[in-house]
Amino acid sequence: MDRRPGLVVLALSLLSLAGFARWQGVEESLATLWLPAFRVTDALSPERVVEAEALPAADVVAAVSEAWRAELRRRPAAPVGRELLSVPVLSVDLARRELVIAVPPDSVLLDAPVTHHGRYVGSLCSWRAGDRVVERDGRARVALPGHARARPVAGVWSASETGLPLHFLVQSEAGVAAVTQPSRRLVAAQDQAVYTRDVRALGDDLPAGLLLGSLQLVPRDRPGGGFDLQRNELANLKPAIRPEHLGTVVIEVTRGARLPSAAREAECLGSPRADGTQLRIDRGRVAGLQRGDWVVSGSQLLGVVHALGPFSARVERRAPPGLLVIEDGARLIPTAPQVDGWPAVWRPVVGQRVWAGHRELGALFLGRVARVHELGFEIDFAELPGTHDVLVVEP
Fold first, then answer.
1. What gap in Å lies between CA 183 and CA 185, rounded to an integer?
2. Is 247 found in the same domain as 230?
3. CA atoms of 110 and 210, how far apart (whole Å)
4. How does pLDDT run across 305-361, given as a tens digit for each residue?
5. 293 and 243 in a common domain
6. Alpha-carbon distance 144 to 46, whole Å?
7. In this model, does residue 203 exceed pLDDT 70?
């Protein structure tokens, strides 16, 4: 028997594993042709199958879904004729201080606030200076604080419920979110959490009570050297959220407006349990497959599409960006993998179940907390299911 074809496949596979990207597509193409052989191997090798953890019951999935959606949309209700909708973040540009999000057609307004998890993210802005066009090809731009076209935001800080509040305005100046027009001295508010202020009496529908971030005083030189914060009346806003960690945001849309369903059927190539860190799906059955798409089986999130070949795609087993939910006894804790996204006076425990949330599918099981350290926590992902049939959805 001629072994040369097998040796060619082996050589290309080794090149792919070694990081030679140009060979990965060739190896994936050959792997697609070998799909029937993979099926036979699976059937003849039952010892490769590991008993998977039983997925949580339907009532647990429903409870986590409700908790995830409620926390994501934690903000005052939308005005009459409008409603809140969760939409995916398509791209993040930190240098330009902006996001691009997907929106339903003809449903959003200029300067409308964008939020996440009770935090102010930014506002919808036009595509060009002086233009009123907010939506283009189902996409909209979000101006983060510091963006040249970010809307002014009224903020407030109070030392106590009965104390005299500090009112101010956040305006974008020279690429930073500058705190202007303070109602009194800023020194007491250094590093303190500040929120959006109710200014409906002034004709502004900005929701009140959204976490803006914290005030950072700008040090000023003093005679003899060093800095003097006591005499300083300049401050910038440190936003409450890191945009690179966002996967989904909440916007106001016309009541009834929706994004089209993004679910598509796909098929795993080979045994999906052959590699615990990644799997591969047949790209030919999935129209419009993109990096960042989620791969789902039932109520389990298997991973995120990482690399695209001509005939197949590699799926990486990792948590998507955005809000997660951890089961802590009878409580459901909305959180993030990074420590700065944890609730106050709370810490995850190894072995707790971890969930992601999808705007259309609801709660999706990831696995369990594997390790907790000073930067956050890591996830031990649940065993991959034995089925070849999976679902691909946009974030």
1. 7
2. yes
3. 19
4. 988 888 888 898 889 988 999 999 999 999 999 998 898 889 999 999 999 999 889
5. no
6. 52
7. yes
Domain residues for the domain of 170 are 82-254
Q: Cα(144)–Cα(170) distance, rounded to whole angstroms?
A: 12
The number of beta carbons lying within 10 Å of the beta carbon of residue 52 is 13
Q: Which of 224, 239, 254 is the last residue of a domain?
A: 254
Q: Which amino acid is at 367?
A: G
Q: Is the pTM of this model over 0.85?
A: no
Region class of 71: left (phi > 0), else alpha (psi between -120 and 50), else beta: alpha
Which residues are paired to 250 by β-bridges?
86, 115
User: Alpha-carbon distance 156 to 211, whole Å?
Assistant: 10
Q: Who's near 131: CB < 8 A, 6+ residues apart?
A: none
233 and 93 both lie in a single domain: yes
Q: Which residue, of 221, 254, 287, is where some domain finishes?
A: 254
64 token code pair: 């986590």
Structurally, the chain folds into a number of domains equal to: 2
Token duo for residue 187: 């020194």
